[in-house]
Design a protein that fits this description.
single chain; about 10% strand; two-stranded antiparallel ribbon; 2 domains; TIM Barrel; binds zinc ion; alpha/beta; about 425 residues; about 50% helix; eight-stranded parallel β-barrel
């Protein structure tokens, strides 16, 4: 199983927007971009929503049948490890092996020796084609990289082998993720991580490093954009060189997590993948649910009331809701509109405040992030919530499709034909 060049991860908290999301991918294809969808959901998310991997598979299959989608599509067991992989085995064909927690864990002497022996040829001046300045690699550099990443790669290999034994060779796609950590991995580290993966027999097709800058949930990229550009470009060149040098799949590409709303860097990533003719996988992380709330607000009446209730409840429970996301959100509580103020808003005003249109006078990143982490409130509303989005399916789905196609895909492929 070989992942296509351009793939887009569509996250969907409540599993009701499969068709609306697939419509956005279909629009891209109609406009000449050969994009394939990957339904991604993590174990953590399933636990909060009380859904299961079988639900995600069903959502994907149903959307594909309903729209008569004839192209490949995948279901991603997102951020799994040895403890959580089992429940996904029969329902997924894409596995994101999350080994962030194993960075810095100890590897055996045998693995360390084998790596240092193989990597020794890169000691001295390491020249990566396309990168002007050479890297200077010492034995200490290699020992430090082994100390940081060899244990994590060994863990990835263990998860990979477990999945392979269950599903069979070549029947699934493997991604390796190290993004949920504090320190970004440098392009040089990425190069040697890829060597380790090839040595340990993990045919990784996508890799999600931690990039520099902040990838906060549901809002734009924050960081030094020029630095990001340089790092992303070097990562692309490292991957191209690693494919040449090591035993790795020829379609290996970068995977960008928390890709929702990172509008500033989309044109940069788009430009660079075209410059080097690379592919990309982008995971959008659950902002589809915000489009549901926007749809409810626009629908008015009881639906608008429910949107306001979700906000006022989230406002009261800020601390609890924000705690698990402390490192990936940035809300100034004093800057949030009070629930009593919001109760007087029209549906339009609510929608404009929540919708991410950079520069729109009503757009409020704090309001947006609070509702983003507030999906637990909707999960608690249970059937009442699902019924409400079902009753207003047309307007909700319109928001979902437009968000993915117009605000995301078009920024990555600015030359896209208007469909
Ligand atoms: Zn991630």
């Amino acid at each position: 199983m070989r992942l296509e060049k351009y793939s887009f991860g569509i996250g969907d908290r409540f599993g009701r927007q499969g068709m609306a999301q697939l419509k956005a991918i279909r629009q891209a294809r109609a406009a000449g971009i050969n994009l394939v969808p990957v339904w991604n959901k993590s174990n953590r998310e399933h636990q909060i929503i009380h859904s299961s991997p079988a639900d995600t598979r069903r959502e994907a299959d149903n959307a594909v049948a309903a729209l008569n989608w004839k192209f490949p599509y995948y279901v991603d067991a997102d951020h799994i490890n040895l403890n959580t992989v089992d429940a996904f085995l029969d329902h997924s064909d894409f596995f994101t092996l999350d080994v962030a927690d194993y960075i810095g864990s100890k590897a055996t002497q045998e693995l360390t020796d084998a790596f240092l022996f193989r990597a020794a040829r890169y000691e001295g001046v390491l020249k990566i084609p396309g990168i002007d300045d050479p890297f200077h690699i010492t034995r200490e550099t290699l020992t430090a990289i082994a100390g940081n990443f060899l244990g994590a790669v060994h863990e990835a290999a263990a998860i990979y082998q477990g999945i392979r034994q269950h599903k069979g060779d070549g029947s699934f796609i493997a991604e390796v993720s190290m993004d949920e950590v504090d320190n970004p991995q440098t392009p040089v580290e990425l190069f040697f991580i890829l060597l380790m993966l090839s040595m340990q027999g993990v045919p990784v097709q996508t890799i999600a490093p931690k990039f520099s800058g902040r990838f906060n949930k549901g809002v734009d990229y924050q960081g030094n954009v020029e630095q990001f550009r340089k790092e992303f470009e070097q990562d692309l060149l490292v991957i191209a060189y690693a494919i040449q040098s090591f035993d790795l799949p020829g379609n290996l590409k970068l995977s960008v997590h928390s890709g929702s709303d990172k509008f500033t860097i989309y044109p940069i990533m788009g430009e660079l993948i075209r410059k080097y003719d690379n592919g990309i996988h982008i995971k959008t992380a659950g902002t589809t649910w915000l489009e549901e709330v926007i749809g409810l607000a626009l629908a008015g009446d009881k639906a608008l009331d429910m949107a306001k209730t979700i906000y006022s409840t989230a406002y009261k429970r800020q601390e609890e809701l924000c705690a698990p996301y402390a490192t990936v959100i940035d809300i100034d509580p004093a800057g949030l509109p009070s629930p009593s103020e919001v109760s007087g808003w029209s549906g339009e005003k609510f929608a404009h405040t929540l919708r991410h249109i950079p520069g729109h006078p009503d757009y409020h990143p704090g309001f947006r992030q609070l509702i983003h982490v507030g999906y637990k409130i909707a999960a608690e509303l249970g059937e009442a919530y699902l019924e409400m989005i079902g009753n207003h399916a047309r307007i909700v789905e319109e928001q979902v499709t437009t968000n993915i196609f117009d605000r995301h895909i078009k920024r990555l492929f600015p030359d896209i034909k208007q469909s």
